[in-house]
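Blinded run. Sample ID left blank on purpose so nobody reads anything into the name before looking at the predicted structure. Input follows.
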Amino acid sequence: MEIIEIYQDKDVLVFEKPSGIPVLKEGNIKISFADIIVKKYDFLKEVERSGIVHRLDKDTSGVLLVGKSDKSLLFLQKQFKNRDVKKRYLALVWGNVKGEKGIIDAPLGRSLSDFRKQKAYPLSLPGKGIKREAVTKYRVIEKFKEYSFLEVEPETGRKHQIRCHLSYLGYPVAGDNLYGFKNQKNPSNLKRIFLHACYIKINLPSGVLKEFHSDLPEELKEVLENLKKDNKKHDYQN
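Blinded prediction complete.
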């Protein structure tokens, strides 16, 4: 599997993580993103967590930061912990999202019915177990007949936050088999979850405030193009 490097300096490496590979070893998975980069950049063997600063879900693609030393790793991780990092994702969701933008403010906790999942709770309903603050902003980029294309900005960094929050709102991410609804329809040519980490803005150890961008992978662009064609057909018929 090809791993694309999009930036490197004396402290930091930045990659485009492909879909279909976990960032770190999990379950019965034989190879992880960390395994691949350590093989290419031997010095990362000496860095905690192979320098991995943050995580993306296995099937989510996009920008991923790696510290080249323990010192750099801690510097970058601290910014994520303090919420000093600006992150944006692109997501296609099932359904027509109401309005043009919104904020989802719903704490997340481990689902009691499925250990693999997170559960969102209304602020007014404490519920059982440990819950953590979770806030997600979103805006609609384009609407299709049965889907909406969103830019999503998580203000917190909880596990599965975007996927859980959008499902809680009633608009699960297309291709998401874990948080999707039973009657959910996915575009016929979509073979993965439609979630891509497209942007990160962060201060580097060098003192430079840096922005990193990642375009949608070709397979996701094709999904959008097909939906646009369907929109035109629908408009023509009406």
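Unblinding after everyone has recorded impressions. DSSP finds four helices and twelve strands in the chain.
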